[in-house]
Amino acid sequence: MAWWPRRRGARSGQSAQDRRQRVILTAEGLRLPLTLAMTSARLGALLIDLSIIMFGLYAAVLLILLIAWAIGIDKLDKTPGSPASEMMEALAVIGIILVFLARSAWFLWFELGPRGATPGKRLVGIRIAARPARDGSAARLTAEAVIARNLLRDIELFMPVVFVGGAVTAGTDTTLAGWAALVWFGVFALFPFFNRDGLRCGDVIAGTWVVETPRRKLGSAMSVGQGARSVSMVTGAQYRFSEAELAVYGEYELQVLERVLRDNRDDALVEVAQAICAKIGWTSGGGDERAFLDAYYTQLRARLEVGMRLGRRKADKHDGGTAPPVV
Amino acid sequence: MSTLSSWFSRRDDAAIAAAEQATLRSDRFRLEREADWRRLEAIVVRIEAGRIGAISDADLMALPVLYRMVVSSLAVARDTTLDAATLAYLEGLAQRAWFVVYGPELGFRGWARRFFGGGWSAAVRAIGPDIAITLALMVAGTVIGWLLVAGNPDWYYALVPAEPGDVRVPGASRAALYQSLFGTTHREAFSVFAAYLFSNNAQVSILCFALGFAFGLPSILLVIHNTAPLGALLWLYHGQGLMLELIGWLSVHGTTELFALMLAGASGIHIGRSMAFPGQRAVLDAAAEAGRRTATVMTGVVLMLVVAGLLEAYARQLINATAPRLALGGAMLVWWLVYFFAFGKAGERR
Fold it and tell me: pTM of the entire structure?
């Protein structure tokens, strides 16, 4: 009969989510909840960034070659000191500098911006932030922190790739030193999986972490429409629920009901309306579920919010709804 | 005050009329403030997109006030409303606004001014003990290189990576070695050489810094590993009585490059030392503090390596005598010493 996911089940389902919850304390004394980014999201963001960088590099090299070819560089005299060879030099310099910049400047440039995120991070909805001090008070992200966390990328990402690549190409000839280096750099690469906050080495050195960026639209107010006035759309009568009929549910059920109402899917509305009717002993008629649920939601919320103001909260239907313990 | 009153009056008419419609007290609370929340959201979205120019002066002035209003709305809403969607929206908005209001405090220009105007020097001075340790390690590395090669010249090939056609090998004649220092052979592609040197050196220094994370030990090894060839080279040229000429040849870029290597090694050792001996602080806090300080130093190291690459590729080939080479190298050394250890101190005292 339960129309909400079982509370206990919901809890165990949420526990992974809860484990990523952190709270920082702003200068105004506000406790701001943050959600740490999942490692898989960070990996995805990194892969997106790297593909953009690789693609950009290839495009740049191709462009340079096309330009060189278009002006007929292959037909020019290539003795040292000639204009053609000097231009080839200039192109080679641009190439080397591009490769160097691509490795660090991409991350630096975007993470120093107001979004604190590279395009890859933005796409998966995460950003970097300064880790709070031990007492939880929020800290500012500084340019130094961004530089530090990106300088460490070399040993976490590029060096392991070099060594893994070396091990693969060397095949069975890999020396003991090669394997040792591989394991050693593997430790850096796998560091984020072995600490509570999912920090990589760069985050440790820079005092940063990676959090999810909320993108929530403000939903409509629930108690504005006709339904909130508890008027049935079929009969025009008013729904009135007694104190006892409202007392069966708590805040948890209220918020599940809110989700159902906001989703506004017909089958869910019918199912929930029938479940509530069964619980409070009403006989459910068909066709007026939306108005019925609107009315029940509004009156239940009004009751619970009054209790809240008086310091009496009822977490869910199992909760007795007594006054909070005196602290 | 006029801006403040203008928002409140704006809110009055339409919003309060809408709020009258709402049955629940918490929804009335929300409807009365919704316009301010949405205004803040619009400002935050524009700042996040980097379009600060698109924000009117009035909005920019209002940003901190609007932020505080959302903060207080959220505090009230947490205690009075059970509307989960509104709470989630407010928490998200407060978080985004917090990142904007307390974002990185300076733009690039402000950062550069602070960096060159004393921030870099101060960071270098702050890791003074580590610089002393690194200097000792570099001297030790050079001595080790020299002693190894002096004991058995075969070590030379292990320390100095052999390039085909390189005349700088044990047993080379004085004339050949002299020629390698003052050769008029046109070294093709100076600029490519410079860019390559820079990219290579920058990678070594970044590695030196990054490996400080493993308690500094790999940084120590890297510093020794990178100075041992220097000792081997010195031994080789000393044997033919060309010591001073070699030092002149090296000093043009070497004073800058080795200084940069020293700072990079010192940064790595500083991080390693802070993590191994955090004192009263938590290890994570100590590491973060050391990392931020040395990141400033490392930014400077990369710049120094650009200078070193240019000196090595151009200046050394253009100046073909020992005395001016020594003068240039010495001048660079004096410049760095003055800039790091004398510059900006007055500002600190002021």
Answer: 0.79
